[in-house]
Structure formats: structure tokens, C-alpha cells
Amino acid sequence: MTGRVAGKVALVTGGGSGIGRASSLTLAREGATVVVTDLNGDSAAETVSLVLQAGGKARSMAHDTTDETVWQAVVASIRATEKRLDIVLNNAGVSGGGKLLKDTSLEDWRFVNGANVEGVYMGTKYGIELMEEAGNGGSIINISSIYGKVGAVGSVSYNASKGAVCVMSKGAALECGQAGNGVRVNTIHPGFIFTGMTEGRLQRNDFRDWALKRTPIGRIGEAQDIANGVLYLASDESSFVTGTELVIDGGFLAI
Q1: Catalytic residue among 121, 147, 158, 232
Q2: Does residue 58 sit in helix, strand or coil?
Q3: Is 158 a catalytic residue?
């Protein structure tokens, strides 16, 4: 253990699988105490079990990130138990189902944007609140996407939500800078990463072949590729980094 985030407390939403699980394990390995939350409480508990088996510190909570009452309960629990918060990874989100705009109902639109925008908004808002209380600064990391920077057919709701996360995070970073609270806010923009959310599409030969051709590195990303970026932004190594976008996409956006 190198302790790149030793002594810090991290909150990871959507920590029951994929990027959230890999990030939880990575942060714990590097010395953080991790509060792992997920809509599926059992999945969050499984992640915590893996952390504990590896000698790290973590606990889990069931967490619907679209519900402000639940957010307030999570915040109250951290305030009472860990008594500080240094890192927030707002990772929980949904894919949107791949519907064309003409086939997207207002209900569909609200579902995607509720999960991907409102959940991140509350995580950012309450994360800043707890960090200011502790007075130690902190790092908020919001998961956007390559599709928060460019459009895609069948992803209009998702595009809108991830674009909103990107620019909202910049505004939050500026407000924190103006307040002088030491809180940094950044976004990560993953490319095609093999997780439970993308597994179905990436197992289709046509889609996988297209994604590989569009990715100069020549492979599909892994959750650990994103977790490594999370660790950098969570650590003091990125103390001069705020309001910016960390693209981890194997070169997809370079084409």
C-alpha cells in the first residue's frame, strides 16, 4: 500500500459493480476509508466484502441517488460515523436504452436525466457541504462520458445528461474556487469500458468491431483504467486540477 489517499474518507455511488467497484477497491488499497453506496444494497455489500478481504476499510449503504431524502440520510450517516468527507465519486447512472429522439418519451428523458444529472447534482452539493464542514478541502469526481462531449445516434438523452454533468461540474469548481473552500470538482469522460452496463452491446460482434476501429489504442477499456484516473483526481497529486475534463478513452475522441 502506497497510501496515495491515506487517511481520507471517500464516498462512491454506484459502487456495487463496474467502475464504482474498481474505484472503491483502488481507493481502499491506497489507504482511504470508503463508503460504498448503490441502488442494490447487496451489490454494495459485496464490494465492501472484497475491500475487507484485501485489508481495506469500507462500509456499505443502499442508496437511490435520485432521492434527496436518501441523500440526506447518507450525509447524516457519514457526518455521524466518519465525521469527515474528502472524496466523492459520483458514479451512479444509467445508459438510456439507446432510443432515437423521435422515440424518446418525456418519461424516458426524465428517467435518464434524473439519474445522471440530478443524482450528480445532489452528490456534488452535499459533498461540498460535508467537505466545508470538515474544513480540509476535498475532491469531487463526476463521471461524465465521451458522449458528454460529442453526439451519438440513439443517445440524445444520454448526451444531454452527460453534457450537463460536464458543464455543471465546471460551474461548481468555479464556485468552490471563489469560496476558497479548497474543494476541487472535475469530470472523467470514459470511452468504451467493459462493464455490466456495456456488456450486452460489446458482446455483439458488429458493435465491438466498430468500437475497436474507433479506438486507436486497439482494445476496449477496463473499469480499472477509469479507477486509475479516479485515484489521481482523488489524491493530492492533482491539487492544482479543478474544473477540467479527464478523458480516458483510448484515443476515441482524437479521431
Answers
A1: 158
A2: strand
A3: yes
